[in-house]
Amino acid sequence: MKIIRLLLTIVSLCLFIQTAYAQVGTTGLQFLQIGVGARACGMGEAFSSLSDDASGIYWNPAGLVLVEQKEFLFMHNEWLEGTRYEFLSGIIHLSKLGSFGVALTYFDYGEMEGRDEFGHHMVDFSAYDFALSLSYSRKIKDDFSAGITGKIIQSKIETESGTGFAGDIGVLYQGPFNGLQIGFVLQHFGTGLKYVDEVTKLPMTVRGGISYTLPLNMINLIPAVDVLKELDADYKTNIGLEANLMNRIALRGGYKVKSSQGGMTAGLGIVQKISFFQLKIDYAYGGYGDLGNSHRVSLGVAF
């Protein structure tokens, strides 16, 4: 019960911080809201209570301590309207010290058509967003872990650029019975970015989730639910399910309720042991109506 009360206190504090942060400026840098890792995205982005692979640097840094191997992950995302999104991360577990992680995020807007105030065509230009993240996680108790991530963010549009700093802080509780996990995380809080005289707020998000691993003979079923509150937006719910056969093949599905970033998701994962390491290949699909479809492919290596 003490853990549950602590979790509720943390959530209340996070919501209070978010409310205070919402009073000034305009929200931008929406690339920070795009989910990473084809496994998590195939499950409808209901991953804050799992966060047990190298994509956890994004979802909930508290989960990194659950990964007891070295693990690297690369994701390529063919995003909407010709944009693309790349994510590269790695984590290392040191038993007495905890787990450390690093991630690089790059969002490429491609070539953009330049126009003056009268609509006349000018020189085309490019734009991108970039983030470098450093994470640390450790167990506070056998069933309770905490983690933190610090980020340096840079955004460039034509000749103008801005730099800012942000952080995530999360907790993960395993219990009160085997297979149940509860996670909470405050994402993207920080200074915002300044372009010339305009300050752009970070899309601060409070996220909480619950999942349960249900072993059924050769199959593990993992249903998961996330509830999130983004800055300047309503509450949203993400629902996901993974069916894992002998830790070799996984089928995934999910649905994002009231989300501007799609509804139905689906995915597939394969794990193959090769010599001393595991190769993980994952794919996720997301539909976005008239905007098109998103295709994510992740390649992971654990050893």
From TrEMBL:
This is Type IX secretion system protein PorV domain-containing protein. Residues 22-221 form the Type IX secretion system protein PorV domain. It comes from marine sediment metagenome. Gene3D superfamilies: Outer membrane protein transport protein (OMPP1/FadL/TodX). It holds the Pfam family PorV.
